[in-house]
């Protein structure tokens, strides 16, 4: 080969090819043994996968090497990455400059330029990348080598003496002939692998159930504050409490999900409407145990079936859940404060009051994508839908019907949601929270009704988030609720909030948060309506909810979150001293 007078690009190509051929010539036995071993491992993995029917065999590569695009039957793709779909095909490029991830400064630029522009032996991915740093499999190597040799055959047949000397091409042709058996064997293995993979893809799914869970422990208690009903200091006891959630996610088609949620815990609520340690829901934490079950008794907290009738439509049918949260209407707008056993400490910091009217129950929720930047969410929950008694059931008892239109910029740095909900509570019906109406946060008057009177609410909310950078975001909301006590009169309730989030604070995966807002406050009331403070009496002062937390990520499975909740003028009454709650939460996920 030393007497060849090729230009530099041809030399780079030939040197690369000769290096490959040298390996094949001098180590054929080792190569054949390794290939046979690889095939046996692949067959074993395939058989195991077919037996379990839960996954497709995978290798360490994301996509087929571009060289393979030149052969008639390409290697099937068994994984995907870089946002390229499984059925992506490679497109021929005419110039190396079309490959966006190849630069003139790259050490192999000249070789790639020759292979693309002179020999046409390289193709790019659909997103016009070459991905030169990705490893290739033995099958890809064989297919790529075959593609190059086929190109050399074409040059020989065409008599392209201006590119290379014909005698040297004939030498390469002899090498190809000598390894015809090995190449044919590898080609057969590739074809067989393609057939087996197609079968696996067609039959890969069977009913599977995946178990995930979280264990939350809390050390915390009241540092300051009075009971707003008795006007006496609230107990200053520090406690160690827990909550456990087990989620069984079952799929029957591969695109649906049956979720069963089991919960047990003993985290006591610090307050309720005219009950609990504070005598108000101001500053209520988000992880309280259900008052309907004994402490640490395992119970069914959620049962929901989700499926997609179309690619842009998600339907959730649930017998025990809350559709607003099932379809994630709150999370995308408030991602740094909303979460289960994570993020914010208080219930109010997680979401606008418009989402919080009513308890869990049966119902239906639908999420419909409207293009790439809009989503429409609809949910109907019947709070006592499983109760056949009068003033209960799916359509004659308590319900919440909610609709939300959400907008996202393409990069989702700005998000906006407009929410409307209509809710009704029959007279003298109560839920798990002890109130038959209200947001279950905020002042006692905001959560009160007239005894013996049905109540209707029309709720309006505006929520927004803007992410200034990957490490700083601002979110906020305003909520308004028009209450009507049927046959008695009307009332207005308002709330607002502003949150600052600091993702990756001090450590990647950690999160800092600062929050200030006004929990639901009764601002107007018909003169003849008495909600417990006197006819026409409303909340006289403004209470502020101030909260800070830092969620430190110890590992992918463990996070520690210290936090403080500070409530000024609890129950919207300046005569009540400020209350302070300290919380140290540890979350284990598996």
UniProtKB/TrEMBL annotation:
Gene Ontology biological-process annotations: carbohydrate transport
Alphabetical list of InterPro entries matching this protein: Carb-sel_porin_OprB, Cell_Envelope_Struct_Comp, OprB_sf, Por_som-like, SLH_dom
Domain SLH: 95-159
Record GO cellular component, one term: membrane
PROSITE patterns named in the record: SLH
Pfam families: OprB, SLH
GO molecular function, one term: porin activity
Family statement drawn from the similarity comment of this UniProt entry: Belongs to the OprB family.
UniProt name for this protein: Carbohydrate porin
Source organism of this protein record: Dendronalium phyllosphericum CENA369
């Amino acid at each position: 080969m030393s007497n060849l007078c090729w230009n530099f690009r041809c030399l780079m190509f030939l040197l690369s090819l000769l290096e490959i051929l040298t390996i094949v010539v001098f180590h054929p036995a080792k190569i054949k043994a390794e290939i046979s071993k690889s095939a046996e491992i692949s067959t074993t993995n395939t058989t195991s996968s077919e037996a379990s029917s839960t996954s497709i065999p995978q290798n360490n590569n994301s996509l087929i090497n571009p060289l393979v695009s030149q052969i008639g039957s390409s290697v099937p793709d068994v994984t995907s990455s870089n946002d390229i779909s499984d059925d992506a095909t490679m497109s021929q490029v005419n110039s190396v400059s079309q490959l966006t991830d190849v630069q003139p400064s790259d050490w192999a630029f000249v070789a790639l330029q020759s292979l693309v522009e002179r020999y046409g032996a390289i193709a790019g991915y659909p997103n016009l990348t070459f991905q030169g740093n990705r490893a290739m499999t033995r099958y890809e190597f064989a297919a790529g080598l075959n593609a190059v040799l086929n190109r050399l055959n074409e040059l020989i047949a065409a008599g392209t003496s201006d590119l290379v000397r014909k005698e040297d091409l004939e030498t390469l042709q002899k090498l190809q002939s000598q390894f015809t058996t090995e190449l044919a064997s590898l080609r057969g293995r590739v074809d067989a692998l393609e057939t087996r993979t197609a079968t696996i893809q067609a039959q890969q799914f069977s009913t599977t159930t995946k178990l995930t869970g979280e264990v939350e422990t809390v050390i915390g208690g009241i540092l300051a504050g009075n009971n707003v009903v008795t006007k006496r200091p609230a107990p200053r006891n520090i406690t160690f409490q827990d909550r456990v959630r087990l989620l069984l996610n079952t799929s029957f088609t591969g695109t649906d999900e049956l979720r069963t949620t089991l919960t047990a815990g003993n985290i006591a609520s610090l307050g309720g409407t005219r009950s609990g340690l504070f005598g108000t829901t101001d500053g209520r934490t988000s992880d309280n145990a259900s008052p309907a079950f004994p402490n640490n008794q395992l119970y069914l907290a959620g049962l929901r079936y989700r499926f997609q009738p179309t690619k842009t439509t998600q339907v959730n049918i649930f017998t025990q859940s809350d559709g607003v949260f099932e379809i994630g209407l709150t999370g995308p707008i408030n991602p740094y404060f909303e979460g289960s056993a994570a993020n914010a400490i208080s219930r109010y910091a997680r979401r606008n009051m418009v989402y919080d009217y009513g308890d869990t129950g049966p119902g239906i929720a639908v999420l419909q994508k409207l293009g790439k930047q809009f989503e429409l969410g609809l949910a109907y929950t019947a709070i006592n839908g499983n109760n056949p008694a009068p003033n209960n059931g799916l359509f004659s008892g308590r319900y919440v019907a909610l609709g939300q239109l959400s907008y996202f910029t393409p990069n989702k740095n700005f998000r906006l949601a407009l929410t409307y909900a209509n809710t009704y509570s029959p007279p003298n019906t109560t839920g798990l929270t002890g109130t038959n109406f209200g947001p279950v946060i905020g002042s006692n008057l905001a959560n009160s009704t007239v005894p013996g009177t049905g109540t209707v609410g029309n709720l309006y909310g505006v929520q927004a988030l803007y992410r200034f950078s990957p490490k700083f975001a601002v979110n906020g909301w305003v909520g308004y609720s028009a209450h009507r006590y049927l046959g008695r009169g009307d009332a207005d309730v308002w709330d607002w909030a502003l949150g600052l989030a600091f993702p990756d604070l001090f450590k990647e995966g950690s999160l800092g948060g600062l929050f200030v807002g006004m929990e639901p406050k009764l601002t107007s009331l018909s003169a003849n309506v008495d909600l417990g403070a006197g006819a026409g009496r409303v909340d006289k002062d403004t209470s502020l909810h101030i909260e800070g937390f830092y969620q430190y990520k110890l590992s992918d499975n463990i996070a520690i979150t210290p936090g403080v909740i500070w409530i000024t003028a609890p129950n919207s009454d300046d005569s009540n001293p400020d209350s302070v709650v300290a919380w140290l939460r540890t979350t284990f996920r598996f």
